[in-house]
Amino acid sequence: MTLSRMKRILLKLSGEVLMGPGQYGIDPETCDRVAQEVKQAKDSGLEICMVVGGGNIFRGLAGAAQGFDRASADYMGMLATVMNALAMQNALEKIGVQTRVQSAIPMASVCEPYIRRRAERHMEKGRVVLFAAGTGLPFFTTDTTAALRAAEMNCDALFKGTSVDGVYDADPKKVPTAERYETLSFDRVLADNLRVMDASAVALCRDNNIPIVVFNIREVGNLVAVLNGEGVSTIVQNQAELTNA
Ligand SMILES: Nc1ncnc2c1ncn2[C@@H]1O[C@H](COP(=O)(O)OP(=O)(O)OP(=O)(O)O)[C@@H](O)[C@H]1O
Ligand SMILES: O=c1ccn([C@@H]2O[C@H](COP(=O)(O)O)[C@@H](O)[C@H]2O)c(=O)[nH]1
């Protein structure tokens, strides 16, 4: 994958990261810091769209485990992602980055509905488009949303900014001896059931040949470093691309 040739990327921001040092909710300082990094990336000439998770507020699976109906819990999770998207919109606009939030669940008085061709136009005009409310469908996640929107928007890569610095051979939060991959194929992620991202998201990226770059966005400056090919990350792509690299 040649990072320098990329024109348009999708940044998936884990909701959990937005908690900052807290245990729940949205930390304004973290939003501001991430916004600065997005601005820097945009100023380098990239077109950027974003999907923000909701794990800092509500996850459907956790809600279902507590007794909520799963589909209702998932809708609650999707609404949480709208709050996060609005928080990031606010942080970006404070520093002069033009944005639009588009929600997969229409809410006319809050933001635009998701309209692909309109999103395309916003990006051509230099706006950062934040895709909120996931796919609008329960039983999915924002990882799958990110893969779907990256394909729809013809992105050159999907950058997953999370709280681990790449894909490991086991969950590093559970297995301290786990080792990180520099690169690996989509097929290996799926065959080994590496759970840094949902299988559906990985399969969508594989089928549309969209590389995934997993990196730690909690580390200050890492987004721009990874975009410059310098920071620590794992690049997941098709075997053919890995062989040609
Ligand atoms: N093989 C693996 N390599 C790296 N991380 C892994 C692996 N298996 C599981 N994980 C876990 O995957 C998590 C990354 O997903 P993340 O926390 O970004 O969740 P998310 O659902 O995308 O975001 P949100 O916080 O919005 O729910 C890490 O916290 C890590 O512990
Ligand atoms: O398409 C989607 C996307 C998300 N959800 C629900 O939202 C929460 C939060 O998203 P994360 O990806 O976990 O950050 C998720 O747990 C689902 O409950 C959804 O239903 N459909």
Automatic annotation (TrEMBL):
User: EC number(s) of the enzyme?
Assistant: 2.7.4.22
Q: What class of enzyme is it?
A: transferase
Presence of keyword Iron-sulfur: no
Give the GO cellular component terms, alphabetically: cytoplasm
Q: Where in the cell is it found?
A: Cytoplasm
- Please provide, alphabetically and separated by semicolons, the GO molecular function terms listed in this UniProt record: ATP binding; UMP kinase activity
Q: Could you mention a single GO BP entry for this protein?
A: 'de novo' CTP biosynthetic process
| Catalytic reaction list | UMP + ATP = UDP + ADP
Cite the InterPro entries for this sequence: AceGlu_kinase-like_sf, Asp/Glu/Uridylate_kinase, Uridylate_kinase, Uridylate_kinase_bac
Name the pathway it acts in.
Pyrimidine metabolism; CTP biosynthesis via de novo pathway; UDP from UMP (UMPK route): step 1/1
Indicate the family of this protein: Belongs to the UMP kinase family.
The protein here is known as Uridylate kinase
> Which species does the entry assign this protein to?
Stakelama tenebrarum
Task: Identify the gene encoding this protein.
Answer: pyrH
